[in-house]
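Regression test case RT-17, inverse folding.

Input:
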């Protein structure tokens, strides 16, 4: 999901397991810090300056590598630390 509000857009994407891309246009810059505690678990996968940059990131990512890194980060590495 590409969105400019952390508390709604990033949480919605997080709840369905979608990519979370925060754009800094619109409410984006202020939203990154607004009510941050409420959506801290829904950290954006990418923060883009604008919609074009967000779409370019989506088109250029290596999806397999992205998911492998995500699994390593959240399910293996984090569990080893605790």
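Golden output:
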């Amino acid at each position: 999901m590409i969105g400019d509000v952390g508390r709604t857009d990033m949480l919605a994407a997080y709840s369905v397991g979608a990519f979370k891309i925060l754009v800094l246009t619109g409410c984006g810059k202020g939203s990154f810090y607004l009510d941050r505690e409420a959506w801290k678990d829904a950290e954006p996968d990418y923060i883009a300056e604008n919609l074009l940059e967000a779409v370019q990131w989506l088109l250029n990512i290596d999806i397999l590598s992205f998911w492998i890194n995500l699994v390593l980060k959240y399910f293996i590495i984090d569990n080893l630390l605790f």
